[in-house]
Amino acid sequence: MLRLALMLALLPFAAAAGCRDFDFESVPYTICEVQASQDLRMFQSGQNGPLGSFTAVEAGLASEGKTLRFAMNAGMYHADRAPVGLYIENTVEQAPLVTGAGPGNFGLVPNGVFCIGDKLRVIESLAYKAAPPNCRFATQSGPMLVIDGALHPRFIKDGDSRYIRNGVGVSDDGRTAYFVISNQPVNFYDFGRLFRDELKLRNALYLDGKISRLLAQDLGRRDFGFPMGPMVGLVVPQE
């Protein structure tokens, strides 16, 4: 058993499952890895309107005998917690794609879409419009952090806009999504470099900042705060 434990400890992080804490250039982060074969879903509203919290999502899943192993806020939203851009839930488009530049981080084009389908994808918004894949769930956010291996062109190396931030990147084969939240304020440039240079991902999308929150059962972590809009979560049977 000891030998097996040592072998597992030597495996690269990409082969592991669940969530873990790690540092990149002396900044602490938490990363959660999800496979395309797992039950990854998005949540925004229930029978009584916007859900707003991980607890509300879990209450809805209880009727299925299921719960959340991991969850994170998954895109920007209006004052009524409706999605700002494209939002698809259970194959139903609830909000349309937005392709124009605009104010705020969402409008800092190129922005993009995270799609859950037969594969996991992060797609630049105009590319999505030109050839939309089949998505069971999807959320649009912005800006893109990494686009075909390049950082977003508007990022500033020493930018002083620093917040707690969260985002998602995907492997080239579409089998694995990596959800990351910073545990101290970072700028866009450094956050993008984490996905490109540390995780070696060619496409990654910013989900939000300031309100960024995480539920990670593996770590005993459950962040609280103001009500959220779209959320993404890994659904598992209740124990």
Gross morphology: globular
Strand content: 35-45%
Per DSSP, the total helix count is 4
Order of strands, widest sheet: 1-2-15-14-16-12-13
Rounded radius of gyration (Å): 17 Å
What does this structure look like?
The protein contains 4 helices and 19 strands. Strands 1-2-15-14-16-12-13 form a 7-stranded antiparallel beta sheet, with helices on one face. Helix content is 14%, strand content 38%. The chain has helices at residues 2-10, 54-61, 125-130, 188-198, and strands spanning 18-24, 27-35, 40-43, 45-46, 49-50, 66-73, 87-89, 92-95, 112-116, 120-124, 137-141, 144-147, 150-151, 165-170, 176-182, 203-209, 214-216, 221-222, 231-237. With 239 residues, it is mainly beta. The model is unreliable at 1-17 (pLDDT under 50). The protein starts with a helix and ends with a strand.
Short description:
The chain has 239 residues and is mainly beta.
